[in-house]
Structures are given as structure tokens and as C-alpha cells.
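pipeline/complex-builder :: batch 7 item 3
reading input block
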Amino acid sequence: MHQEIKTTPSGDMVINVGPQHPSTHGVLHLLITLNGETIVNLDPNIGYIHRSIEKMCESLSYRQFIYTTSRMDYLSSHMNNHACALTVEKGLQIEVPERAEVIRVIISELTRLASHQLWWGSMAMDLGALSPFFYAFREREMITDIMEETCGARLTMNYVVPGGVMMDLHPDFQKKVKAFIVQFKSKIGEYHDLVTGNIIFQNRTKGIGMLSKEDAISYGVTGPAARGSGLSCDIRKLYPYATYQKLQFNEILETAGDSFARYMVRMREMEESVSIIEQLIDNIPEGEFQAKTKAVLKLPKGEFYTRIETARGELGVYLVSEGGTTPYRIKFRSPGFSNLSALNHMIKGHKMGDLVAVMGTLDLVIPDIDR
Amino acid sequence: MDVKITEPTTPFPGSVHETPGGGIVLSALDDVINWARSNSLWPLVFGTSCCAIEMMSVAAAKYDFSRFGFEVFRASPRQADVIIISGTIVNKMAPVLKRLYDQMPEPKYVIAMGACATSGGPFFYNTYSVVKGADHIIPVDVYVAGCPPRPEALLHALISLQEKIKSGMTREQIKSTLAEDGK
Amino acid sequence: MSKLKAPWQKMENDALLNSLQTSFPDAACAIGSDWPEIDIDGSDLLTLIQKLRYDEQWTFDYLFCETCVDWKTHFTMVYHLSSTKHRHSVVLKAKLDHDKPQIESLVGFYKTADMLEREVYDLMGIEFLNHPDLRRLLLTEDWVGYPLRKDYEDPINMIRL
């Protein structure tokens, strides 16, 4: 059977990447217009994992909808839950006890570490280096073991409730986190040895996928992808929430704007997360882990917006309430959605092999884009 | 080339080719073939959402599954034996899944991993775009419960699939054997 | 999260509200739950955005959320704008007609509006005038209807509570 090859009027070829593809980190379908080996245009076709979460949340109560967001950006699932709980607490004017806030921050930073480790392992795997994947998962398994003891689950830990956390920390928590920090600090040098200094890796990422600061603002790019272009946008620093104003940590900025800069931002962010955990792990205040709330929550009429920093960028939760027990309208401003809109701009003029490097440094998680 | 294919009385796995020499040679050969197939199932790279991360954990060093024969993840369906559906299937993805399944050569097996692939999972009620279970699209051999299932649960599913292949029986035959043993 | 807003945020909001109210006397300005809100009609959008984007005292150059709410009698487009220079934020709400919702596209001002508006068109059915490429984003091309509207009926999938 003769198969037609799609071409544009100028003779460029249109090919499909995905939806089933080892490097797209989910089901992302890209329609790429190629002139030889050079990319002329890239058109993302999303919606292959659109699970209608926003419509579904309109029929769930305020205690239930938090856990559907774990499945949105599943690598920073605790942070998504944290954002939803902050929105509900803002509406009900609940004061969260200090112990619960500190526990939430420690688990958020551990989740950020786990997410960056998986990013590092799979980005190296996409570029052809298969060994770093196993090194990354060695440390990630330590974190998921800690999560499992305290929260009950490895990936989608449903640990946050409006008012605090669901249950108190496991007695071994501090010991295990300290052991993990000691191991991680000794191994981060290994990560740099394996990938960062590699001449092939540097040639594949330096100068590739340039994103200027003005373009980053205009496309709405946030998170490490924007900080690699020099844009200061860390929500933990600019609009602090949940004890971040009391902590000492740096916002990592790089000015080069290419893939290597975004890579280095994430590697240094891992070290900053470790220093945040170190500041908190010995000073967890005593007290309640959950504020007293009613069983059935009813938010007053109005609109509430919360912004937090997940591993990928700025997550926004916009909740419109009409006074009932379920939300009237929820919108999740996901970081991956805006990061993906900049991909076409960043990849024009590069070759097919550079596409993997750029998509790896953008760190896209497709269910976050499609919701 | 003329190959005479008889109508299969036991449709799983494969069809029976009539050979001179009779049934005894064939049944011994069947055992060897089933053993070889079950110990070397290569999965397809197919992960849609959260369960894919647990599948990657199973592939990593702590819960290694290449010691059971699932050595390499194949990117192309033409080279894969088993498809592990990890994640939700939505209306837009369903034709893609069907096409991937059709492109896999026989014998092929399907594992539905997680609550979403089994029955729609947490997205069962009030969603307009989720397929409530991957078995609406393709026939499934093993179902794994969990959201996401632990890596040990997925390993148990893989071993169950291997036992199913080695036994060479259909689903109804397996059920009646289990009922006889009183399990 | 403490009950009261940080003191610097409250002062900033009041100053911003005053400057907005003096510049746009026709629009209704008030402090919402976090930031000043401006309520306008859908047809006045472009003039307002032109000033908010380029005026030196505001420079709202970062559109961080664009969405739509279906109020059954009308639609409301909600834009959340922020400035990377002055670090203040504002919420813009534009009222649209329910039977024929149309509004100007913001792609000329913010490149992120491209995909955000396609998503709103796909799920809510708002038509964006002068959008370079308005087509469905998340659902299949042949989908009928706009699911996120309140009057969307789907007898097979939706179980009414």
C-alpha cells in the first residue's frame, strides 16, 4: 500500500514524534516540520492524557479534591496537595500549627529532591547515557522509603489535609532523613562526575535551546527553566508561604539561557534543598499536627488564588466558591503548560538530536499539561 | 507455501498446526516453547501517567525485573512481546493504543497496571474523557490493583503472567483448575 | 499561612488600587481576596491592556493565569497579571454575553496567551478574535460541545449527583 508522506507546500516534511515515544516522558505528540535535518516548526498536540480533572473537582468536596491533584504532576505530588490545602485554608481562615507547617516544608523539599533526581536520571538516559538512571534511582528509593514510612505511599502520598497533615511523623523520621542527607552529600559529586563534566554532554547542551529573559516572561515560563535565563521567579523567595520566609537559602540564577544553564540550575537546586532540610530537621517544633476543623467544609462565597513553587515552576490554584460544599470552578495554572508553549520558539533552527536535549531540560510532565 | 491451519480448540496461546507425527511430539515441544516464551518477555515502552514511574522503579536497580527475563524495554511495538498499560487511557489515546496492540506480532500479552487501566480508577465518576478500563479497547491478561501499585505488586503480576504462559491454558481452564484445587 | 496578609502587601495593594482608580474612572475597582480587581466589559479589553502593559508605573508584563468562569447568565474571563519589575499583581475580569461570547485575543501582548486561549476555546467555547490559530487543543477535533460549561450534558459518562 502506497503511504503518502506529508509535505508542506515548500517541500518540508512533517513527521510525528510520539505519542508513544521513549523520550517524551509521557504522551506528547509533536508535529515537526523538517527541512532536511533542521527543525522549521514544531506544533505540540496534547490532550492524550486529558482526564477532565477540573470538571471532576466540581463534584468533589473540599476534602476530596486535594487528592486528584496528586495525579496531575505526580513527581511533585505533595506540593500540589499543599497548594490546594493552602487555598482551602485561605478561604476558611484556618491557622495551621507550626509543627504541621514545618513537616509540610520538609516533605516538600524531599519531594523536590526526588523529582530532580528522576529528572537527572531520565535526561541522561534520553541523551544516551544509561548508567545515571540507576544511580538516580538509588537515592530516590531512599526518599520513597522515608515517605512510605510516614505518609503511607511512595508516589502519590495523600498526606496533606486542610489544617495540617494527616498523621504525625514516624519515630524514625529524623534518623532516616539525616542518614539520607549524609549519603546524598557524598554522592552528589558522583552525579557531576558522571554527566556534567562529560564532553559529549556539554557539546550537546551548550548553546542549544536559547531562551532570553524577555521571551521567558512573555511565554510565562517559570521554575528552573526560567531561572536558567536569569529571570528571578522563585515563589519561595518572592511571595513566601509556610515558613519559607524564616529559612536561609539562595535562589539559583544563571544567565546563559541555554540547556546547560537550566541543567546547572537544577543541580544546584538539589543542594539548596538539602540545606533547607538541614536547617529544619533538628528544629521541628512540638505541638499539634492538625488544626481542628469541621468534618464537612464549606467555603464562603468568593475567589481564592494560591501560588507555590513546585519542582517544575509556579503552580497556581484558582478556586471560585459559591458557598456550597463543592467548588464552583477550579483552575490549575500548571507550569508545564506555559513551559511547553516556549518549546517551538526554543527549537527553531536546531537539529532533531537537539530536540531531546531541550525537552529534557524543560522537564515536562505531560499529565501536568493536560490535567 | 501451503500451511494447513486447523481451527484452534485451545485458542491460547497461538493456533495448532497439524504435523505428521502426532500430538505427543507437539505437546512436549509446546512445553519447551511456552517455557522459552515466558522467560523472555520484552515489554513495550508505554507509560501514560503516574504508574509509569512505578514501572521505571521496577526497572531500576532495587526491584530489578530483568532478572525475570524482561531485559530490555523495546521502543517499537514490532519487537515487543508484552505491553504494560500503566496509566489512564482517555478517548484521544484509545485509537493509538489499539494501533500499537495491532502492530505487535503474536504471541502478545497485556498487563493492565493500576486502577486507571483496570477500571478507570479515581477518574471513574463525572469525567467526560476517560475510558473506564483498558479492556474496553484491547483484551487484558493480568490486572494489577493499586494507585499506583507497589513495585512488588507489579512483579507479582509479571510472575503470574509467566505462570499463565507456561501452563498453556485459557482463562476458563485456569479458573476451573483453581476451583478444583479449592484455592 | 497566617491569617493576615503581610503588611507590605496590604500597603502595596492600596497604593495600586488608588492609581488604577484614578486612571480608569469608568471601571469598577476593588480589593479582592488577594489583589486589586478591575471589572470591565469585554469590549474594553484592549485599551486597558495596552495601558497596563506599557505604562511605566505598572508594566504588567507577565500573564500568569487566564481562565473563564461560567455563571449561567454570562461568562467572565479572568486574567491574572503581574509585573516582574515592580512585583505587584492585579486581576482583570471581563464580562461576556452568554449566547455569543467573543473577546479580543491577547496574543499580541503576551505570547503565553496563545495556548491559554486555545484551551479556553476548547473547553468553554469562547471565541477569541484575531487569534492566529484558534483550534481545539485538548479534545479531539470532532468533539461536539464545550465540556466545562454548566449546561453540558453527557448522558453516557456523567453521573449527576
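note: The domain at 6-370 of chain A is CATH 1.10.645.10 (Cytochrome-c3 Hydrogenase; chain B).
queue -> next item
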